[in-house]
Amino acid sequence: TNTMLTAWVVMAFLVIISVLATRRMSLVPESRLQNLMEMIIEFVLDIVERTAGAKAGRLIFPLIATLFIFILTANWFGILPGVGTITLCDPHHPDHCVPIFRAATSDLNMTAAMALIAVVTVQVVGVMFNGISGYLKELSTPLLLTPIHIIGELSHVISLSARLFGNIFGGEILLVVMFALVPYVVPAVFMGLELFFGFIQALIFTVLTTVYISLAASGHGGGEEAHA
Predict the structure, then answer these.
(1) Which pLDDT score, from 0 to 100, does residue 144 have?
(2) Pairing mode, if any, of strands 87-90 and 93-99?
(3) By CB neighbour count within 10 A (0-12 exposed, 13-18 middle, 19+ buried), where does 32 fall?
(4) Nearest-angstrom CA–CA distance, 74 and 93
(5) pLDDT of residue 219
(6) By the 8 A CB rule, do 91 and 138 touch?
(7) CB 101 within 8 A of CB 2
(8) What is the DSSP letter of 91?
(9) What distance lies between CA 20 and its chain's CA centroid?
């Protein structure tokens, strides 16, 4: 699909940037690209360690940083000229045209997949820090609320995926409508807002994921140990 194609383009872009930023790494950054990437990494690491503690934070940092950088890049990629506006039409049905590229996070399949990864990680971390018995005890205490606990865990998939999808998809539609109604000046203002909202949505997704993992790790004293 067009969103999957865009996701692969975003991943290829991030791989190239990572190679360029790290091929001549030095303790004191000599290139602006390495300095920029270190700023981003330090920003995410600070959030993760403040939320989940040093032990759990370092453990989940690769996942959280990957989610943040990918979501942010995918959100901003959707604002580039041509994304969502260059279309491919069916020769047998000229009225049926679809964009060649669309923002990857404007597809619920993409956001749901990332949300599933996040929620599965929450369960894995819960078992790692509390053991299987501790994890099951946390899930079944009190026993009557076990179904509610399970539904609550599953609802995280919906909340994470729907929030990101809804905001990015809505912003995509808004930009298309504004460009059709008032070209150039007014849409430029909305593009600035979309850049801001793209950052906020990436931050919300990763912070909520970190909070869920932190709560899973903190059962029966795990959080205090990690903070120490």
Answers:
(1) 63
(2) antiparallel
(3) exposed
(4) 31
(5) 62
(6) no
(7) yes
(8) T
(9) 23
DSSP SS3 for 138: helix
Distances (CA, A) of 28 to 42, 76, 222: 14, 29, 36
Residue corresponding to tokens 């994304």:
83
Q: Give the whole-angstrom CA distance, residue 216 versus residue 222.
A: 9
The structure tokens listed for 227 are 């903070």
Retrieve residue 131's tokens.
């053991």
Nearest to 87 by CA among 72, 97, 78: 97
Contact call for residues 194 and 168 (beta carbons, < 8 A): no
* pLDDT at residue number 224: 42
Q: Taking the chain (228 residues) in consecutive chunks of 10 residues, what is each chunk's mean pLDDT?
A: 90 93 82 89 91 83 94 89 77 79 89 93 85 74 71 85 88 77 68 85 92 78 42
CA gap 43, 30 in Å, rounded: 19
Coil vs helix vs strand at 74? helix
User: In this structure, what token pair is assigned to residue 164?
Assistant: 């990101």
Per-residue pLDDT, 18: 92
Q: What CA–CA distance (Å, rounded) separates 85 from 174?
A: 13
- What is the rounded end-to-end Cα distance, in angstroms, of the chain? 47
User: Residue 93: beta bridge partners?
Assistant: 90
Cβ neighbours, 10 Å, residue 198: 24
Residue type, 147: P
Q: What is the pTM of this model?
A: 0.82
